[in-house]
Amino acid sequence: DTAVSQTPKYLVTQMGNDKSIKCEQNLGHDTMYWYKQDSKKFLKIMFSYNNKELIINETVPNRFSPKSPDKAHLNLHINSLELGDSAVYFCASSRGIDLTDTQYFGPGTRLTVL
Amino acid sequence: GNSVTQMEGPVTLSEEAFLTINCTYTATGYPSLFWYVQYPGEGLQLLLKATKADDKGSNKGFEATYRKETTSFHLEKGSVQVSDSAVYFCAPSGGGSQGNLIFGKGTKLSVKP
Question: Could you read off the pLDDT of B39-80 as tens digits, one per residue?
């Protein structure tokens, strides 16, 4: 069984469209994250939820809106897509927010905006 | 907030060579330190971690020691294999009580037979 899964794996869309990426974890973790990896492989935290509550909201355009319907799911909705949104988006989860907790990553969603 | 500086790549080695990838960090408090690995086309996987000073993390022949005095967490392996070709990320925990990771820029390792 896949611990952290994301759908879709690839997403190609036009500028201006709205799209969503879904993430699910079956590890029983309380905390979930979204990271963005740019073309140079640089990874940066975007959001984090703990027990369905938003705890990290980095400097991300408000076109990006995370939603956590329950502890096992954290979805990312993006409005009015721009060329610069093209990247690989990784979902991750951890047992909690303790600094020693290991994060488990999904396989990534490669978003290409044309 | 916390930050990390990681050795720039790419690094190309022959099989059985010795590997060192340098990583230094700045942090308030006492972060945990992680090395993650990303194989081509895949997500990140934890390689090893250390949660307090002088701890040594190890896995698959890789080792790294949490050096508080030099704020470093250098990754080493005595004899690399072709299958070790990947991108390696050093990541201290982000500080505060939020548990996020601060990633280095990644070091791409290519091992030639």
Answer: 988 889 999 999 999 999 999 999 999 999 999 999 999 999
* Nearest residue to B34 via CA among B79, B1, B11, B2: B2
Assess whether pLDDT exceeds 60 at residue B19: yes
Amino acid at B33: L
Nearest CA in chain B to A5: B43
In this complex, do B101 and A100 lie within 8 Å of one another by their Cβ atoms? no
pLDDT for the residue B98: 61
Strands A10-13 and A109-113: parallel
Query: Under a CB-based contact definition with an 8 Å cutoff, are residues B111 and B88 in contact?
Result: no
Work out the burial of residue B72: count CB atoms within 10 Å of its CB; fewer than 13 is exposed, 13-18 middle, 19 or more buried.
middle
A contact test, residue of B34, B89, B101, B107 with most A CBs within 10 A: B101
Contacts of A48 in chain B (CB under 8 A): 98-100
d(Cα A44, Cα B91) in Å, to the nearest integer? 11
**Calpha distance A31→A66 (Å, rounded):** 13
